[in-house]
Amino acid sequence: MARLPIVGGNWKMNTTRAEARALLGGLRALDGLAGVEVVICPPAPWLGDAADLLAGTTLRVGAQNVHWEPKGAFTGEVAAPMLAGTATYAIVGHSERRHVFHEKPTETNRKLRAVVEAGLRPILAIGERLAEAEAGRTEEVLRRQLTQAFRGFRALPESLVVAYEPVWAIGTGRAATPEDAQARCALVRAILAERFGRAAAEACRIQYGGSVTAQNIEGLAAQPDIDGALVGGASLDAAAFAAICRAVATAG
Ligand code: PGA
Questions:
Q1: Contact between residue 118 and residue 157 where contact means Cβ atoms under 8 Å apart
Q2: How far apart are CA 247 and CA 252, in angstroms?
Q3: How buried is residue 190: exposed, middle or buried, by Cβ count under 10 Å (0-12/13-18/19+)?
Q4: Which of 2, 124, 128, 245 is deepest in the core (most CB within 10 A)?
Q5: Three-state DSSP class for 110?
Q6: What pLDDT score does 1 carry?
Q7: How far apart are CA 252 and CA 124, in angstroms?
Q8: How far is the C-alpha of 5 from the C-alpha of 227, rounded, in Å?
Q9: How deeply is 222 buried, as exposed, middle or buried, from its count of CB atoms within 10 A (0-12, 13-18, 19+)?
Q10: What are the C-alpha distances in Å from 158 to residues 30, 120, 162, 184?
């Protein structure tokens, strides 16, 4: 069965409310685009605006992060069940959570469970750092991150998306080549197959992320194991992001 590619726009900690609303208005032009699922992940304060402004369109809203507890005394945090009705997706384990905020693998695992339990669809982000890539340790790192993230899971959640994002490619303007990205995404699929069986792995969507632009998306999207992209910087420009979504839609 063919996998429907998915493109996510991760705005990170950018946009004023006015900028967010203007960008969301521009993105409505992507409504009804066939051949790709589009997910917009604005900063938490604008999730409600995103849900309102994208209501009735085919675009989905995603959160950039969640806490693992369903509620409680956790000042400043957002619980997964709070997102029900607003977000459809939630990114878990983004490299900035892991490396800037020192999120531990056990925490990524708990967040993943919380997202699934809340009925949200996780976008699990994994990827190796530059020193690990240079030391030839990429496979070991991806294997470890996947093993840790899925601790306690008996099956691969059907709605789960994996985003392979080499840390050295994020925000650097240095995207992986289509061939390298394909090899890593195929490796991720093989690891998922070992853990959850071939059928589940074949059905799982795997995105590439890291300096994706309207210029380099075509080669990436043409790869058999790359099912779309997680886009940071270029998702802040409605025209660039729309071009990326359209390129992915036509590549499939
Ligand atoms: P980038 O970010 O496109 O700005 O490299 C990607 C990401 O962090 O998901």
A1: no
A2: 9
A3: middle
A4: 245
A5: helix
A6: 62
A7: 22
A8: 4
A9: middle
A10: 25, 11, 11, 21
CB 165 less than 6 A from any atom of ligand 1: yes
Q: Is 94 a catalytic residue?
A: yes
Q: Which residues of the chain have pLDDT under 50?
A: none
Closest CA to 76 of 109, 49, 112, 101: 101
The single residue listed with the structure tokens 């409605």 is 238
- Which is the closest atom of ligand 1 to the Cα of 175? 5
pLDDT of residue 139: 98
pLDDT, tens only, 41-64:
999 999 999 999 999 999 999 999
pLDDT at res. 94: 98
Cβ–ligand 1 distance for 109 under 6 Å, the answer no
Q: Are 99 and 129 in contact (CB under 8 A)?
A: yes
Domains and CATH numbers, the chain: 16-212+221-244 (3.20.20.70)
- Number of neighbours of residue 52 by Cβ within 10 angstroms: 12
pLDDT of residue 229: 98
Task: In whole angstroms, give the CA distance from residue 79 to residue 97.
Answer: 16
Residue type, 215: Q
Catalytic residue among 37, 94, 96, 103: 94
Indicate the DSSP class of residue 176: P
The pLDDT assigned to 179 comes to 98
- Token couple for 172: 């650097």
